Amino acid sequence: MALHWMRRAWLVAASASALLLAACGGGTVDSQFSPDRVVAFGDAMGDLGQAGSRYTVNDGTVNNWTQFVASQYGRDLAPSAAGGLSYATGNARVTAKPDAAGNSGTRTVKEQIDAFLAGNKLGGNDLVMVSAGTSDVITQARLVLEGSQTQAEMQANLEQAGRDLAEQVKRLVSAGATHVVVAGPFNLGRSPWARQTASTGLMEAASTRFNGALLVALVDYGRTVLYVDAALYFNNQTADGGSDFSNRTEPVCTSVDAGPGIGTGNGQVNSSLCTTSTLVANANPAQYVFADRVYPTPRAHQLFGDYAKGRIRDRW
Question: Mean pLDDT over all residues of the chain?
Answer without folding.
Answer: 92
